[in-house]
Amino acid sequence: VQLQASGGGLVQAGDSLRLSCAASGRTSSTSAYTMGWFRQAPGKEREFVAAIRWSGHIYYSDSVKGRFTMSRDNAKNTVSLQMNSLKPEDTAVYYCAADRNVILSSIRNDREYDWWGQGTQVTVSS
Question: Region 78-105: what's the mean pLDDT?
Answer without folding.
Answer: 95
